[in-house]
Amino acid sequence: MSTQVNNIPRLNEANFKDWKEDIQIVLWCMDLDLALRVDRPTSIEENPNKVEIEKWDRSNRMCLMIMKRSILETFRGSIVEGTNAKGFLKQKEQYFTKNDKAEVDSGATNHVSVSMQSCIWSRPPSDAEAFIYVADDNRTKVKAIGTFRLSLGTGFHLYLILVH
């Protein structure tokens, strides 16, 4: 059991699809994937479903522990109390597959572009620099390469080499 769990690769920006597939295979082989396949059974007076609920709860706990263990601390994010394994996996999927194209985080881009004080220099990319290639054979076109100065509130300047 621990060998299977230890063979799951650590999740990073470039391997989400492989990580998810490995997680699903390991949980399936260990017969712990119930919480990923079905929603939690509900208990009603006529049919309390106590055994099914306990089985689902155990599956959910184990799935969450195994997934959290195979994710770098940086990407775990805050796990809200009551989060189930299916929801946790969906959150990570949304985070790592936000965009089919490789694009820079718009929040950071907007902040830098709004805060930018001056462009020291910029140039169009050469043929060899025309595209940035990332995982899954995605690529994005480079429009400009340059150095910019960002004046921080502390009086320091941050120099950025930017590929746009």
Automatic annotation (TrEMBL):
It comes from the Eukaryota. This is Uncharacterized protein LOC111025186. The gene is LOC111025186.
